[in-house]
Design goal:
The chain is mainly beta and 402 residues long. It is 12% helix and 44% strand. The strands form nine sheets. It has a four-stranded parallel β-sheet with strand order 3-2-1-4, with helices on one face. A four-stranded antiparallel β-sheet has the order 7-9-13-11, with no helix packed on it. Strand 2, helix 2 (39-46) and strand 3 form a beta-alpha-beta unit.
Length: 402
């Protein structure tokens, strides 16, 4: 590992430098050769180190913020031995009490992880993503766990889980893997590929690292063809309008040709069933025509098929795409069975009447009228008088005979 020793030319500092070099570490020695300490002695302390490949001497002051930030950018440990002392006019020893705050952000340098992919590609092609790791240190790296992810604008074309485990990586060893991706959209500004991350341990200490985030510019036409109908349920011989549209969602124009076909049970009544044109990026072109169905049932219309000019690494090619298949339900009104309506009869039975025809307002079934028996005025009184006279005559006749 790389270490910084401030005041490294002093007595204590030089001994720390010696110990670190003997242990195989890189050492940066910072000292300002303050005259309060014999400069010749300091130079003698560090003179043997200049022949060592892992030793670097920097003459400067710890209060120089810019210098300190520069030399601590890639170190992992700092041994702070810098000091300032002197004597005043009365020969009384004293030490400086001033301090300076510095931001130290050591980063591990022994483990490297990188991610690479081509920076430009076409929508029709695939790209290979490469992940490489390496051990540039002097210690074994254990329990390495690599994780990766995929941008939503790409699809994976390889069988990979985006997670890899490496038990150990010895000093000087490397490891790598690859997988293929295919873009789903175009982007002139480029898509940012997510970083791969790594967790590992060195000397039982946990570390983590992330790779770079490369960009890919994706070019190419992307026509989308759509086919719709204005009615999904119709009576037989009723007209239906079919609309076919081509939307180029790519960033390169393309020439296309759409041709339609009709089932045997469908007749073209108006319009054209084909279109050939040039489509600029982010434009929508299309056409419509009218058809009529000649039989009942569910009729599935064929897909609209478009041939267009695509772009690949090898040049322009011809490609084909298709739309969906709309389904129309056709009804024959003459074959629709009417539902019966029941009305109770006066005798308790049920009379059945057919429903009214379409477009005719329903009327209630006719009811048979019952007229009362006519009564002649005064007839009841005359009848009662006749009965009374008849009874009186019979009674007198009976009395005479006695």
């Amino acid at each position: 590992m790389k270490c910084l020793v401030t005041g490294g030319a002093g007595f204590i500092g030089s001994h720390i430098v010696q110990r670190l070099l003997d242990s195989g570490h890189e050492v940066v020695c910072l000292d300002n050769f303050d005259p309060t300490y014999p400069i010749a002695t300091k130079k003698a302390n560090i003179a043997p180190f200049f022949t060592h490949d892992n030793f670097e001497f920097v003459e400067g002051d710890i209060l120089d913020r810019e210098l300190v930030n520069k030399i601590t950018a890639d170190v992992e440990y700092i041994f702070h031995e810098a000091d300032a002392k002197g004597t005043d006019i009365k020969d009384i020893d004293s030490k400086a009490a001033g301090t300076a705050s510095i931001t130290v952000a050591p980063s591990q340098y022994f483990f490297t992880i990188s991610k690479a992919v081509r920076d430009r590609m076409y929508l029709q092609n695939t790209a290979v993503v490469t992940i490489d790791i390496g051990n540039n240190g002097i210690y074994d790296i254990h329990d390495i766990h690599i994780n990766d992810s995929l941008d939503e604008n790409f699809e994976l074309k390889s069988n990979t889980s985006f997670h890899w485990d490496i038990p150990v990586l010895k000093p000087g060893e490397e490891w790598g893997t690859t997988y293929s991706i295919k873009p789903l959209e175009t982007n002139l500004d480029g898509f940012t590929i997510p970083a791969a991350t790594a967790q590992f341990t060195v000397n039982n200490k946990p570390f983590s690292a992330s790779s770079n985030t490369p960009k890919i510019v994706v070019n190419g036409p992307k026509p989308i063809i759509n086919k719709t109908v204005d009615k999904q349920t119709v009576n037989i011989s009723e007209y239906v309008t079919v609309t076919v549209s081509v939307n180029n969602r790519g960033n390169i124009g393309t020439r296309f040709e759409v041709k339609e076909s009709l089932p045997d049970s469908v007749s073209l009544t108006a319009g054209s069933t084909s279109l050939a044109n040039w489509s600029d990026p982010n434009t929508v072109l299309g056409f419509s025509y009218t058809i009529r169905m000649n039989k009942e049932g569910k009729i599935e219309l064929p897909s609209a098929v478009s041939n267009y000019t695509n772009v690949e690494y090898r040049g322009t090619t011809r490609a084909v795409l298709s739309s969906g298949k709309p389904v129309i339900t056709v009804i024959d009104p003459s074959k629709v069975k009417p539902a019966s309506s029941s009305v109770p009869a006066s005798n308790g039975s049920v009379n059945t009447y057919p429903p009214p025809s379409p477009g005719i307002t329903a009327s209630p079934p006719p009811t048979k009228s019952v007229e009362p028996t006519p009564v002649t005025p005064g007839f009841g009184s005359i009848f009662a008088l006749i009965v009374l006279l008849f009874a009186t005559a019979i009674r007198r006749n009976y009395s005479t005979k006695i």
